[in-house]
Design goal:
heterodimer; A: about 400 residues; Rossmann fold; four-stranded parallel beta sheet; 8 strands; about 45% helix; B: about 500 residues; alpha+beta; Uridine Diphospho-n-acetylenolpyruvylglucosamine Reductase, domain 2; Uridine Diphospho-n-acetylenolpyruvylglucosamine Reductase, domain 3; Vanillyl-alcohol Oxidase, Chain A, domain 3; 15 helices; 19 strands; about 35% helix
Chain lengths: ~400, ~500
């Protein structure tokens, strides 16, 4: 769906919703509650269909935009679980998925000046002032080891927004792994946002300009392969840039987990002999549902000696979101409760570690865990770095 | 009956407080956004905003809410899952929506007697998955897996076993409008379960079936379940007329060959290819825009799905018998190979439905606003009605015009349901379609001895029944003197 779309464009689609509830439950025969918002509070309004009905109520003049609506729209975690479940709403033009309709609603709310206080308003203010909410000067601090640094390399590490503490640790592990593998690489980072956060939050007025500027720098690298760590960035570049940029020609992209499989297969990365450990893998929404990458992280774990993988109840397309990207204040503890709910599935496996492949998931899980258990959540890249050998030759 | 007054803002605050104190604040919603989403559905019934949406978690909560509603004479509209497309869950303006979705426990699966005790918020997918684990199944309707067995069964089901087993309801726990809790079946005896619907006293469950939440709130039900036998299969038979298909279904059910059978029109079963397509948004085939009475060459006019279950040896014999009976009425059996070639989507849909106990949601609902025509009549009457109804609905110029039809109760009556998907933004066409459907209902009653399958708000069907209506109205006055349960539906 284009960012120039209006709510009126989806009027036909939303008026076809049958209230069938299928958008809230995991795929048959799992049937567990999958929409995190609906799982938090089982009231129809808080389901994807309920939000669609809210849009229809707006379009048909039965309700006006209001601050509570903004809090609710921004509380949706944007996990996209409903997108694969609803077969009806995306059918008519403009073929918008449910999560896209929620983003469109957010965009309209932003245009009405209805922006939730706190983090979202903070981001909005920065975007208004600078066109981006990230501080570009921090981008220079990620240093590629000299051994593999090569500005003419065929592979480019996409490292926008790496500089929060959680992300920095993951990127540093990634660089160590690249050094072990001996893969020449260059860096793409100007310390800004690729646009995915602005897109999710409905700041579409500013988004076009930001993405165009980013693309101007990226398109010089069109023959290279972009290596992504943050699945939100990869999903946005791969799926949304074509919708936003008229001259987008596509980029070659690979997620780090896919890259690691090749490294193991080609013998460039070797597992260390360490103590046995039981792990479970949490599918990040944007890597799994967004990019369809479910198997690669599991294949990577299978290359590691002494690692036993136990699947959580609710995995792959039926994986429950961690709740990290919910920013509204409609339910004050929504993110934390949603993360706890996912952690309940982790505890049920009796695994030692919870592995994920998205910095936001890691951050929220660590936030809600007691201090003594925070170390039980790791990013796949960090975990592989810990359990692989240094390069000897 | 008592008159209903709309609450003013001050009264709303007081009632809200009373409700919250009685059952807990998280179960009572008065946010404008919540109220707006409960004020309409995909039908053409007008938007009506409730004052509160209440989400009880147990029978005691329901009891408390009904007592408060009765005290203040506030109309109450009950929903189990809210999957309704004809306006039956739209509240009265300023009323209370009693949404039972949080009461979603499967309380018991009794494999000895063959029943399950469930709460109203249990959805089909959850129920059928739990039953399958115990080697059991239930009647599965052609409605989405997110709909509820109770919502469906209480409005007379047209599910996957209705040819033989018409009514799945055995026993109900009901809260009356003034807050009295009672059981309708055998569980009203101190130590008995709910395996017997009635006797030695009258069948009270019947009073709450097809009464659309106007006489009481069902908070628990005992429903029939059936063992999954050693061998289960679906045989497909092709016919070039509805009459031949109808005769085939009656013959095989009366010879105890099948458990259930259903006649699919070609413009309906062909739409399953759209759903089955791996394209996210596939093209609607041009053939579906043509005359629904004339299928293209090689496409059977009707396909009858014949569900059989039992021992494998019996299935082998029964398959041969299906072939014999199909030939008797000028039809033929469609081999699995042929079905895979010409109707893979339909085959997948039917196998999911009959053997997987899960209804695949059809993408066809995305082509327009779903509107339906549902009647029942004696078999021969439906044979006469079928071409008339197809032609009449096709005259609206909206394609496709699909239908399915099934024998109820060994073919004593036939159920006939048509589907049409007009443009949701063409008000004129929607009005014309609604008027045509009502005209067709009236004509079906007059000319074909048919009866409507389910009530729709505002239609005069009950009032057309004379003394039956007057008797029922007296019952309603006795049970619900303040008329708080769904007064706006226009049933009484």
């Amino acid at each position: 769906m284009k960012i120039t779309a209006t709510l009126e464009d989806v009027h036909r689609a939303v008026s076809l919703c049958l209230r069938c509830n299928m958008c809230s439950y995991a795929k048959w025969p799992d049937n567990s509650l999958l929409c995190p918002l609906y799982a938090y509070d089982q009231c129809y309004t808080y389901s994807p269909g309920g939000l669609v009905y809210l849009v229809r109520a707006l379009l048909e003049g039965w309700i006006d935009y209001n601050p509570s609506m903004a809090e609710l729209a921004f509380t949706c975690a944007g996990c996209g679980a409903c997108d694969e479940l609803c077969k009806i709403i995306p059918f008519p033009d403009p073929h918008a998925h449910l999560s896209e309709i929620v983003r469109l609603l957010r965009h309209q709310l932003v245009k009405q000046g209805l922006i939730p206080d706190g983090k979202i308003r903070g981001i909005y203010k920065k975007v208004q002032e600078k066109g981006d909410y990230l501080d570009g000067t921090q981008g220079v601090n990620l240093e590629i080891p000299q051994k593999i640094k090569d500005d003419s390399a065929n592979m480019v590490l996409f490292a926008e927004c790496f500089h929060t503490n959680t992300q920095r640790e993951i990127y540093e592990s990634a660089l160590r792994l690249l050094e072990k593998i001996g893969k020449p690489i260059s860096l793409f980072s100007d310390g800004g946002c690729c646009g995915s956060t602005l897109y999710d939050l409905g700041f579409w007025e500013q988004l076009g300009k930001l993405v165009e500027a980013k693309w101007e720098k990226m398109k010089d690298l069109e023959d290279k392969e972009f290596l992504f760590i943050n699945p939100h960035c990869q999903e946005f570049v791969v799926r949304r840039y074509p919708e936003i940029l008229p001259d987008y020609k596509g980029v070659k992209s690979r997620h780090f987990s896919e890259f690691l499989i090749d490294a193991f297969k080609e013998g460039n990365l070797k597992s260390r002999k360490l103590d046995k450990v039981k792990v479970t893998y949490h599918d990040p929404c944007y890597l799994g549902r967004g990019l369809g990458i479910y198997d690669a992280p599991r294949e990577v774990l299978a290359f590691l000696d002494g690692v036993e993988v136990i699947e959580m109840k609710g995995n792959k397309a039926n994986s429950l979101c961690c709740g990290a990207r919910a920013k509204g204040n409609y339910f004050s503890d929504f993110s934390e409760k949603t993360a706890q709910r996912r952690l309940d599935a982790f505890w049920a496996t009796e695994a030692d570690l919870l592995i994920t492949a998205c910095p936001y998931c890691k951050e929220i899980f660590q936030k809600v865990l007691p201090t003594e258990d925070k170390g039980r959540v790791k990013d796949l890249i960090e975990f592989v770095d810990e359990r692989t050998m240094e390069r000897t030759s | 009956m008592g008159s209903i007054a709309k609450l003013n803002e001050k009264e709303k605050v007081l009632v809200c407080q009373e409700l919250r104190e009685a059952i807990g604040s998280n179960k009572v919603k008065d946010d404008e956004n919540v109220l707006a989403t409960y004020g309409f559905d995909s039908s053409r019934v007008l938007f009506q905003k409730p004052s509160f949406v209440v989400l009880p978690e147990n029978t005691e909560d329901v009891k408390q809410v009904l007592k408060i509603a009765n005290r203040h004479i506030i109309p109450v509209t009950v929903m189990s899952g809210g999957v309704n497309i004809v306006g039956l869950c739209i509240p009265a303006d300023g009323g209370i929506v009693l949404d039972l979705r949080r009461m979603d426990k499967i309380i018991e699966i009794n494999t000895d007697s063959g029943y399950a005790v469930i709460e109203p918020g249990v959805i089909f997918d959850k129920f059928t998955a739990a039953l399958a684990e115990k080697g059991f199944r239930c009647q599965v309707p052609t409605s989405p897996g997110g709909s509820t067995p109770l919502g469906n069964y209480l409005m007379r089901p047209s599910g996957s076993l209705t040819t033989r087993h018409l009514d799945p309801i055995l026993d109900l726990e009901v809260v009356s409008p003034n807050g009295i809790v009672m059981s309708t079946g055998s569980s009203h005896f101190p130590s008995a379960g709910g395996s017997m619907r009635y006797g030695p006293f009258p069948d009270l469950a019947g009073l709450f079936c097809c009464s659309y939440g106007t006489l009481g709130v069902v908070t628990k039900a005992t429903v029939r379940i059936y063992p999954i036998n050693e061998s289960n299969r679906v045989v497909l038979a092709a016919f070039d007329s509805y009459e031949s298909s109808s005769k085939y279904t009656k013959d095989i059910i009366n010879h105890n060959i099948c458990e259930h059978c259903l006649i699919w029109s070609w413009q309906l079963y062909r739409t399953y290819e759209i759903t089955y397509s791996t394209d996210w948004v596939p093209e609607v085939p041009l053939e579906l825009m043509g005359n629904p009475l004339k299928p293209p060459k090689g496409i059977p006019y009707n396909v009858v799905t014949t569900l059989m279950s039992g021992y494998e040896e019996a299935m082998i014999v029964n398959e041969k018998l299906c072939e014999k009976v199909a030939r008797k009425y000028g039809g033929r059996i469609i081999s699995r190979k042929e079905a895979e070639d010409i109707m893979p989507g339909a085959l997948y849909q039917w196998e999911q439905h009959y053997l997987g106990y899960h209804q695949v949601m059809s993408k066809t609902f995305g082509t327009g606003r779903y509107m339906a025509y549902l009647v029942m009549a004696e078999p021969q009457a439906i044979c006469h009605l079928e071409p008339w109804a197809v032609k009449k609905l096709a005259s609206l110029g909206v394609a496709p015009v699909g239908y399915y039809s099934m024998p109820f109760d060994f073919g004593r009556s036939m159920f006939f349901r048509m589907f049409i998907y007009p443009d949701p933004q063409n008000e004129e066409l929607l009005s014309k379609t609604a008027a045509t459907l009502e005209e067709m209902h009236q004509e079906a009653m007059r000319r074909y001895g048919a009866i409507p399958f389910r009530y729709r708000p505002g239609l005069p069907w009950l009032k057309q029944t004379g003394e039956y209506y007057h008797f029922l109205k007296k019952v309603k006055q006795e049970v619900d003197p303040n008329n708080v349960l769904n007064p706006h539906l226009g049933l009484f």
